[in-house]
Design a protein that fits this description.
Elements (H helix, E strand, L loop, with lengths): L1 H22 L2 H44 L9 H20 L5 H16 L5
Helix pairs in contact: 2-3, 3-4
Length: 124
């Protein structure tokens, strides 16, 4: 029984060495490095989008507050909801730009039209 366990352990160690050797090929190592680099880039893009999301919502909020004080917007408008909605539109446009699904000009025009449609009913 001990010999059987010892043989099994030795076989496991041999298979581990073989697996490590097969995973250490230059091609696999190169692929792992590429994936690591890509993951880092995606993480950086995610951080940028997060920063834009936070600053965008704050930017729209301040802009809407100022417009409401100047009596250009309906006083009953929910500023937080509107700033969030505008931020979502901008983030969606940014997502489309990052994934190259549309040209910048088309995105800019679409975003402008969406913002106009959202805000026009609330303008005085």
């Amino acid at each position: 029984m001990r010999d059987s366990i010892r043989d099994t352990l030795e076989n496991l160690k041999k298979k581990e060495k073989d697996l490590n050797a097969s995973l250490s090929t230059p091609e696999i190592t190169s692929n792992i490095q590429k994936l690591t680099s890509l993951n880092k880039e995606l993480s950086e893009i995610s951080n940028i989008v997060e920063m834009i999301d936070q600053s965008g919502s704050d930017y729209y909020y301040q802009l809407l507050i100022a417009s409401q004080r100047l009596k250009e917007l309906d006083q009953n408008l929910d500023i937080q909801l509107m700033s969030y909605s505008l931020s979502v539109l901008a983030n969606h446009a940014l997502d489309r730009m990052l994934t190259n699904r549309e040209t910048r000009e088309a995105l800019s025009q679409t975003l402008s039209e969406q913002i106009e449609q959202l805000l026009t009913p609330h303008l005085k």
